Structure formats: structure tokens, C-alpha cells
Amino acid sequence: VSTTAVPALGDGTLVDLLDRLLAGGIVVAGDVTLTVADIDLVRVRLLAVLSSVPALAPPEMSLEP
Amino acid sequence: VNVVAVVDAPAPGLQTVAVGALAAVVDDGLDNGDQDPVLRHGAIVDRVFALCPAVLPTRAGTRLDDEAAVRTWLEAERDTLGRALDRVRGSAELAVTWQGPDDEPTSPTDGAAYLRALADRWSGSRAARDELEATHDLPGVRGVRVLAQMPTVVKGSVLVERDAVEGLLDRLGRLDPCDGSWRTSGPFPPYSFVAGDQ
């Protein structure tokens, strides 16, 4: 997350907002091209979810006491 | 197509793809580089939250191939989305965080002392968690979720009817400190209540 265009919120509010925006993870899309000697060999279209383990783990894997 | 939120009563001015009463709020500008995409996602969700009584924010960056794919997804998830919209209708989320004392326990001298110190480290956060969960009985509260619990921190969210937010913020300011302190912020769109019971 870059530091551009940060909304005018109090520190605690911004932290809590980001906490919620990122809690379930974010989706990252992109293309990866593997190239050898200027020859494109493999092109991969990525659609990945980046998240903490607890956010995606089933309830029985909870780390809470 | 970037999908930002789902609503069932889209307000004029929102860019949506609709199937029956359900509508996905979409945005073509998430990749324009002028603004951080996550914060832009949050800003659009905030706008939708201000205009619509029931909002389900999607995971930031959620993208489908085209509008036809959005319609297919809305059709397939119609029942689940409908139940979720009913769950959050007319409500907002408040963030509630307990911060316990940071002092580290003294080095234990034997096994029993070690176990006692370990139990003591959690006692404050257990009490704080109980205090947070008890807010479920306060006027206007429709749900409480504990998002994280550690020895010195408890993070949670309270789903509250929008017209009861002010009263609840006042009440949350009088929670038992449980040897620590509480901080509240919001109201936010109901990010933590999109999924069903966990």
C-alpha cells in the first residue's frame, strides 16, 4: 500500500479502517512472463488472494485460546 | 471489471451491474494510478455506505472478466448475498480495541510460577473479551465479533443500527477498563459482518 492519497482521518481511525479493508485479504492481478535470451517462454496470468493465515483458515484452526 | 460492493437498492449516480434487485457497484478507475487502489476501494465503499441502507463491501481488488461475469456471479450467489444484505441493513460497524498493560511478567522461578504467569498474561484480555461480547445486549446492537485476541490486545467489531451509533459510542466509553483501556472508532461500513456466523 503506497502512502499516496491518504484520507484525512485520525490515526486510530485510519488504522482501524485499514485493518478492516485488509482483514479479509486483497486480490492482486497481474501477468508474469518468463523470458530466456529475450524469448518469451511462459506467460502466467495471476489472480491471487493475499491474506493472513487466520483470515482464511477454517474456524477449527483458530489460534485463540 | 472491479467489483467494490453489493447493494440491493442502488442509489442514482453509482455505477452498477444489476440482476433483479441485486446490484454490484463497479469501478473502472481502480487501476488509474492516481490513488492507492486499496484506499480508493475504501473511499468508494464509504460513498456507497452513505447512499445505500445495506452494503456488502467486497475484498479489495476483486475483479471479474466483464459485466456478464458479474451478472453470472450475482445470479449464483443471490440467496447468500440477500441474507447478508438483510444482516447488515441499516447498520454500521464500530471498531473496538482493548489495550492491556505492556509490562512483561517477571521471570518465573519454577514451573508453577511460569504457568501462573502465563495464565495471568491472558486474564486481562479474557475479561476484556467478555466485556466486549457483553455489548451484544446493548440497545441497537445487532452483532459482535472478536477479530483478534492476544495477551495485551483485543480487537473487535460491533454491528449497530445507524441511528443508535451515537448512543453506543457513549456507552462504549464507559466499558470496564479491565486493567487496560478501550478505544473506539467508526462508524464504518460493515466490513467485518459480510460473512455469516463464524
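Helices of chain B lie at 37-51, 67-76, 78-88, 111-134, 165-172.
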